[in-house]
Design goal:
Elements (H helix, E strand, L loop, with lengths): L2 H11 L2 H15 L4 H18 L2 H17 L3 H18 L2 H17 L3 H18 L2 H17 L3 H18 L2
Length: 174
């Protein structure tokens, strides 16, 4: 049984907050292969979480809606949804959620060539991931920062960040 099938089976019996969490997980699991279905699950999660006053579920759903809007190239809407998630993660003191929302916003600024804002987001998320000790995400932040500096023509600085990322990936065996 695939992950999606397992989640869909779990959805049949899940109630309240658990149902919101499963809907958000399904949305993420499907965003590449079936974005339309992923968006439907994301909106269901947002609606149910809001009606339950389940702040973590609302934050996760906004983060998913942001991702899905970004996949469709609707960057302003994507950033707005991620910013709503960010505000809720701050209220919850959810460092990982906060870091991921900021990182996602940075990606959307990057796609629009808004490099200063993207770098600011990448640096902020890097700080949180360092605090969490999440070396995979730290490496990703360095990669993203290297790409920004490369796009700006600062090849020496880009190389510095790419080398930092590579060093971490080697240590992780990746």
């Amino acid at each position: 049984m695939s992950q999606i099938q397992e989640l869909e089976a779990k959805l049949q019996t899940a109630t309240k907050e658990e149902r919101v969490d499963v809907l958000n997980q399904l949305s993420y699991a499907l965003f590449r292969s079936d974005p339309s279905q992923a968006e439907d699950y994301g909106h269901q999660a947002l609606s149910l979480a809001s009606s339950l006053d389940y702040t973590k579920g609302v934050a996760d759903a906004y983060n998913m809606v942001g991702l899905l809007k970004g996949v469709k190239g609707e960057y302003a809407d994507a950033i707005q949804a991620c910013n709503q998630a960010l505000n809720l993660y701050e209220q919850l003191k959810d460092t990982r959620g906060l870091a991921n929302a900021i990182l996602r916003m940075g990606t959307f600024y990057h796609y629009q060539s808004e490099y200063d804002q993207a770098l600011e987001c990448y640096k902020r998320s890097l700080s949180y991931f360092e605090h969490l000790g999440d070396y995979n995400r730290i490496s990703g932040c360095y990669d993203n920062m290297g790409a920004i500096y490369r796009a700006q023509g600062d090849y020496d600085l880009a190389l510095t960040y790419y080398q930092r990322s590579l060093g971490i990936k080697k240590n992780l065996g990746d």
